From TrEMBL:
Membership in a protein family: Belongs to the OMP decarboxylase family. Type 1 subfamily.
Main enzyme class: lyase
One cellular component term from this protein's GO annotations in UniProt: cytosol
Protein name, as recorded: Orotidine 5'-phosphate decarboxylase
Keyword annotations of the record: Decarboxylase, Lyase, Pyrimidine biosynthesis
Molecular-function annotations in GO: orotidine-5'-phosphate decarboxylase activity
Natural source organism: Kushneria phosphatilytica
Gene3D superfamilies named in the record: Aldolase class I
Pathway as given in its UniProt record: Pyrimidine metabolism; UMP biosynthesis via de novo pathway; UMP from orotate: step 2/2
InterPro entries in UniProt: Aldolase_TIM, OMPdecase, OMPdecase_AS, OMPdecase_bac, OMPdeCOase_dom, RibuloseP-bd_barrel
């Protein structure tokens, strides 16, 4: 199995993230840099992680007018990140513009779109005027994302099997909200365990606090890898 794990470096400073980074191995995982770390440290954080051999998912979830988002996606891709994302709710024209700028410049950075945040449940969606279950809204935004030619979506693992059925294995399903049995749910609503997520068809599992806040992060990571290997054995046995 090529490592499907993406560790979310939700640290305040590069300096506090580096001890964990030094313990990790680029063959075992990719790294996700999000709003907090990037806002404080900027491109130098990407450079430091690239120098250590990691592929980076720059998770800034761009959501603005097409011209602005395309320029931001271009800027991210120029820094050599493996993956970048936008909000699908920004709409078809915005996603087209982002796709187009990468294609015109021959940039291979994966471009994906956030459907419904994993911290949202049906009640939370209703509060913002979306009166359909999360899974329906995910499928609606994923269809738009697919039509706009993006490489995949951010969704919860709970929607992964429906997405696999409609769009196939190649369309990326990047799933945060992963909670192993030993971890707390925190602010996540639509959660699954690593094994369940793998079996449901997640192509990449984003994991933050269950590893980064664990008393022994490397032991937590090893337990997750063991669970994934077991899930893979089961799924191979089923074929
Ligand atoms: O729908 C989404 C989109 C992004 N995230 C990000 O993933 C990680 C999850 O961290 P945990 O500590 O494992 O909860 C975090 O960086 C979020 O910004 C998400 O959770 N849900």
């Amino acid at each position: 199995m090529t490592a499907p794990l993406i560790i979310a470096l939700d640290h305040a400073h590069l300096e506090t993230a580096l001890p964990l980074v030094e313990a990790l191995d680029p063959r075992r995982c990719r790294l996700k840099v999000g709003k907090e770390l990037f806002t404080r440290e900027g491109p130098k954080a990407l450079q430091a992680l690239h120098e250590r051999g990691f592929e980076i998912f720059l998770d800034l979830k761009f959501h603005d007018i097409p011209n602005t988002v395309a320029a931001a996606v271009h800027a991210a891709a120029e820094q050599g990140v493996w993956m970048v994302n936008v909000h699908a709710a920004g709409g078809r024209a915005m996603m087209h513009a982002a796709r187009d700028v990468l294609d015109r410049h021959g940039l291979k950075t994966r471009l994906i779109a956030v459907t419904v945040l994993t911290s949202m449940d049906d009640a939370g969606l209703a509060e913002i005027g979306v009166n359909s279950p999360a899974v329906d809204q995910v499928m609606r935004l994923a269809q738009l994302t697919h039509d706009a030619g993006l490489d995949g979506v951010v969704c919860s693992a709970r929607e992964a099997s429906a997405l696999r059925d409609r769009f196939g294995q190649e369309f990326l399903k990047v799933t945060p909200g992963i909670r192993p049995g030993f971890a707390q749910q925190d602010d996540q609503q639509r959660v699954m365990t690593p094994g369940q997520a793998f079996q449901a068809g997640s192509t990449h599992l984003v994991i933050g606090r269950p590893v980064t806040r664990a008393e022994e992060p490397m032991a937590a990571l090893a337990a997750i890898e063991k669970e994934l290997a077991e899930a893979e054995r089961v799924s191979l046995g089923e074929r």
